[in-house]
């Protein structure tokens, strides 16, 4: 089954920005947007990884639920 195609409206400034980040001139907007989505998911996964590492270190340093002094850390 072939994917359905839809039409979306974008501001000209968004189209210009998409053109500027294309990896190659003939890359479609669809490909560019899919790459942005992929990068966003990878960034979110990395942010979650870092957050869990920070939480672990906070518990190690301050104990469970005792975060006094966090403001000056």
Account of the protein in words:
It is a single chain. With 73 residues, the chain is mainly alpha-helical. The protein has one domain. It has helices at 12-21, 29-62. The protein is elongated, with a radius of gyration of 21 Å. 0% of the residues are buried. The mean pLDDT is 84.
Task: Name the overall outline.
Answer: elongated
What separation lies between the terminal Cα atoms?
A: 56 Å
**Total strand count, please?**
0
Strand percent estimate: under 5%
The tally of structural domains comes to 1
Biggest sheet: strands, sense, closure?
none
Poorly predicted runs are none
**Which structural class should the secondary elements be placed in?**
mainly alpha
Bin the helical content: 55-70%
Arithmetic mean of pLDDT:
84
Counting H and I runs of at least 4 residues, what is the number of helices?
Answer: 2
Q: What's the SSE pattern?
A: HH
Radius of gyration, rounded?
21 Å
Q: What's the helix and strand layout?
A:
Blueprint: H1 12-21, H2 29-62
What keyword list fits this structure?
mainly alpha; 73 residues; 2 helices
Q: Brief overview, please?
A:
This protein is mainly α. It has helices at residues 12-21, 29-62. The longest helix is centred in the middle third of the chain and has 34 residues, at 29-62.
